[in-house]
Design brief:
about 325 residues; 434 Repressor (Amino-terminal Domain); 13 helices; six-stranded parallel β-sheet; Rossmann fold; disordered C terminus; alpha/beta; DNA-binding; homodimer; 3 domains
Chain lengths: ~325, ~325
Amino acid sequence: MTATIRDVARRAGVSIATVSRAMRDPSIVSAQTLHRVQEAASDLDYTPSQLGRQLAERRHAANGIVFPDLSGPYYAEVVLGYEAVASELGRAVLILATHGRPAAAEMVTRLAGRCDGLVVLGPTVSDTVLLGLAARGVPLVTAARPPVAGVDSVSAENAGTARALATHLADQGARTVLFLGDPALSSDVQERLAGLEAGADAAGIGVRVLPVSSMDEEGGARAAEGLASGDLPDAIACANDELALGLMTALRTRGVVVPRDLLVTGWDDIMAARYAELTTVRQPLHDLGATAARFLDDFIAGRRSEPRHEVLPTELIVRSSSSPAKGDNQ
Amino acid sequence: MTATIRDVARRAGVSIATVSRAMRDPSIVSAQTLHRVQEAASDLDYTPSQLGRQLAERRHAANGIVFPDLSGPYYAEVVLGYEAVASELGRAVLILATHGRPAAAEMVTRLAGRCDGLVVLGPTVSDTVLLGLAARGVPLVTAARPPVAGVDSVSAENAGTARALATHLADQGARTVLFLGDPALSSDVQERLAGLEAGADAAGIGVRVLPVSSMDEEGGARAAEGLASGDLPDAIACANDELALGLMTALRTRGVVVPRDLLVTGWDDIMAARYAELTTVRQPLHDLGATAARFLDDFIAGRRSEPRHEVLPTELIVRSSSSPAKGDNQ
DNA sequence: ATGAAAGCGCTAACAC
DNA sequence: GTGTTAGCGCTTTCAT
């Protein structure tokens, strides 16, 4: 069907070794033969089989990335940052979305067999699975999830900025803050809550927690229904933007006016947050992926000593959903 | 380093052929040997090398998908739909973002060497490259780009809904419509413009075209600067949502009130469009990717006869940016 | 039911 | 500078 190295060798009247050499380093064969090989190769429309090459070199020249989902801008942006660096390093990128499927562990293990290393994002598979892979010698980097012993990790700062957020809310006059989100769902949420509580403590205000079923607009909307109209907190700090947006929309339907009656904040700074005038926290998503890709490459190339754990800075973005003074008051 | 089929065979006291059989179809070896092989395999923590397997079977069990970018929800959602189906079919997914790089053609060719088939989205590589791949026997499906001779394609309906959009704008009282976007940039944009013109013609209103430098918020903002305050059209139909959002924001800064002074529409129905109350057109992005994945699989499995060209329906979503009657009038 | 052996398409010693 | 020859780890006839 498709031409192999042997076909080219025959046609050029040389050995397969010479073809191999000519293809991978033109400077180590004579100009004469180089020409003949190139001619033969282009005549036959020859492309070296990556499979043959990979098996012989015993490497895949490919890296994998595992994430829960790609809906919502969050992981998409991280994956993009990852792809940019990985492809620059000459490695193909394999993706795997787990979608919370129970078979995730097996899928990740299969994926690991197809690449030289793996980046694992967020709540996808258990630490046990990762430790198993690491034990088998699979180069690993985690991102946006709690560090695993001995495995490089990259994440975005949570507690500090959450603390600043609490301070900001207190400055705006809030005395009671409700945190919307389930700390059990992810370590990111946990850290955000912890930071918020620390900041609230310092400002002498209280924090209550309201868990949600899902971290999307629907989860926010459902939470809104559950709130007693007579007893609203001064502010609601949501675990992410989608919750906040769903919440605000549902509250508006009930006649609650943000920020006059109630302050609302999110987390992530997705595009829609700008148009909804939502106060939130911006994360360097692209960088998260890019840094993970570099860590992984360092590991694969054997350029690292101790496991690294990098925490990228985040930034509080104040908009009118939490800042009546400067905001609109529609 | 890691155990091979030979290690397992030795340990189980059988031949490598038997190990291979036991691994891929337990029912064709005796219960006795099956047990011994499984024991040995788990003792050695053996996982069959996908590379060895792939080379022997001469297939990759992987498909590729090529797209311009993943920022913005558009391609991310398509890729996700693709991944869902592909991974269900037991195939790994390789991604490649071209970012308008000149080396795109070569990158795609390399990618083609690593998988059993390819889906190519949008403005990434020229038709020439695709024809070359098709000639080499690479199974191909295009999506969100004009069909190439002999290659399956999937896309979203443009002209019909664009026509409906023109009718809607005319119904709202618009007499002059400006189309914001560069038809030269993609066939999608071209078709949207053509449909809009057809609809405008039928309604007896005029359409002008204003090309943009880029199809994002910045492009929209720049376009806003270029508009003469005194001579605004009645409506601006943008080639996508990001343009429309950037345009509206910039116009608001100049004191132009949407929709009172001017109607604005987008295309795509991204999340931010809802919060900006933007009239737009919704596309079945997830389906686009899923359908492409199925077409590709059919092709690879040899289940197709003639090339197929599927066009998925789209839907006009009217919000207050183009509908003063029912909308807000902030 | 199992084993021996010939590939799959390439790279990399090792000769010459 | 080039050819010969082993592999890389698996699947798959073909015997037995």
